[in-house]
Design brief:
Helix content is 11%, strand content 39%. It is globular. By secondary structure, the chain is mainly beta. A hairpin with a 4-residue loop joins strand 6 and strand 7 (82-87). Strands 1, 8, 9, 11, 12 and 13 form a six-stranded mixed β-sheet that branches. A five-stranded antiparallel β-sheet has the order 2-10-7-6-5, with no helix packed on it. The protein has a single domain (25-154), classed as Immunoglobulin-like (Sandwich).
Length: 161
């Protein structure tokens, strides 16, 4: 019994070092007011270089799930809850990513104008939940070229849900 007690503290310390403290539950960000035809504009960023899905762009590379489409690309970065988006063609139509959660949130993030590079929208997703996305193009309230939905991915570690 003494041996078990003697090992309990080192085992607990080792477990804490390996897994870290229990994460706090985040409060969902209700301030995003983007809609299908009036999405939130992504902010400009300067991430690292990446090539994928036929695109050679400057893109986020750490902890990011990238999906490339003919109209552009999006990358879900679960560390920081960022949704990156880039327009693939400066044709007057803006690439938009629709982010949907499994707890009832629909968010819309529009790429920088005129295919000017990667932009991102920051969301405060609830930890332990799931998100998925699809892209489409938008021009003066008209939408077209909807992609299919991605798989669901976890907000904690980006694992498939």
């Amino acid at each position: 019994m003494r041996l078990l007690r003697a090992l309990a503290l080192p085992a607990a310390a080792l477990l804490l070092l390996i897994s870290g403290p229990a994460p706090a539950t985040a409060v969902a960000d209700d301030s995003d007011t983007g809609t299908l035809t009036n999405p939130t504009m992504a902010t400009a960023v300067a991430p690292a270089t990446m090539s994928a899905a036929g695109y050679s762009y400057t893109a986020p590379v750490d902890h990011c799930i990238l999906y490339g489409y003919e109209i552009g690309a999006t990358c879900y970065q679960w560390v920081g809850d960022d949704q990156w988006v880039i327009d693939g063609d400066a044709n007057g139509w803006a690439a938009v990513v629709h982010v949907q959660t499994n707890y009832g949130k629909d968010r819309y993030c529009q790429a920088l104008p005129a295919a000017q590079g990667w932009g991102k929208c920051n969301y405060d997703h609830v930890e332990g939940k799931c998100v998925r996305w699809q892209m489409y193009e938008l021009n003066d309230g008209t939408t077209r070229n909807f992609t299919g939905w991605s798989a669901w991915y976890g907000t904690d570690y980006g694992y498939p849900c």
